Prior knowledge:
This protein is mainly alpha-helical. 78% of the residues lie in helices and 0% in strands. Among the domains are: 11-110, Receptor-associated Protein; 243-337, Receptor-associated Protein (Up-down Bundle). The longest helix has 59 residues, at 329-387.
Amino acid sequence: xxxxxxxxxxxxxxxxxxxxxKIIITTIREKPKEINMSFGFKNxxxxxxxxxxxxxxxxxxxxxxPMVQCLDILSSQMDKPLFKKIVSDVMYDVEAGSTxxxxxxxxxxxxxxxxxxxxxxxxxxxxxxxxxRLAVYLEKADALMKKVKGAMTYPAxxxxxxxxxxxxxxxxxxxxxxxxxxxxxxxxxxxxxxVMGLSDFLRANWYLLLGVVVGxxxxxxxYYKTTAGHYRIDRIMLRLxxxxxxxxxxxxxRFTRTLGTLVSSGVPILNGLEITARTSGNKxxxxxxxxxxxxxxxxxxxxxxxxxxxxxxxMVVQMIGVGEQTGALDEMLAKVADFYDSEVDTAVGALTSxxxxxxxxxxxxxxxxxxxxxxxxxxxxxxxxxGG
Length: 388
């Protein structure tokens, strides 16, 4: 007597699956929906999760274990319930006669890049080699993502602290000083009047300002989801001083790493460029890659359209051109990717070293300016008292 769970689109698909495995069906029941209290964090499959899975899978395949057994072992040791179920479903599909690529394609967590490389590995009989390349790619992609996020997180955190401190002072500290100044009489200094006016305005209209901020946030997100909005914002991001340099270099590193991995794995160049465009992470870069793909399909080289688009640095274009001429495009792309990985490190370091003092000065000016403005009447009072 067997029992278990299976994720499927409809009951008939499940019946067909069980019959293929020569299992006699007694009852089929739909599983009741569970209340998810993890808010998605526990089940979110990260690039690091995929990298660990791929590395372990490659090691077991290389050791000569059957594919179904590898997937069964990997499934049993998964910590995340969703990933565990996905790997189990892949195992069942492979056991039922599907290729690994076909089984992976059904699961949304595996990208086109992942599936196409596995397909090329299965066709060429070098699945373990391809999985190792995929593992290296995912590990480097995860490291690059963390660098870029780190570069963007620091200024965001400092600005949030600065804004929070300013709002707290205007809402709670400044009104205390204002109550004291009412008893002093006389004319208050202009900076003090400005700060007190800002405090009164914020206290009276904080809900309207909050509504404007929330509305602007959602309007921005909606605009960013449109094709034109996504393209314009991505172009602006590339043109930002310092931060734009980090984004551009990380995009070049991702492009060269992805295309080099696909080409070295036997994926056709046109398919590789299409996949690379979709995983570029920037609409401007994506458009440039797709134009390159169109140009290549018309018989041109890769380097020429890349040079014309003006997005990629001249050094990248020249190295790709040399790689094409020498027949070592994958190796040249890997070298460019390694170089730009280190360039991202340097750019992140430069960004942090510049932003840190700038943020400190900005924060000190705002908070210190408000404090000085509130102490000015006290200095004036002391002067009057001393003179009297």
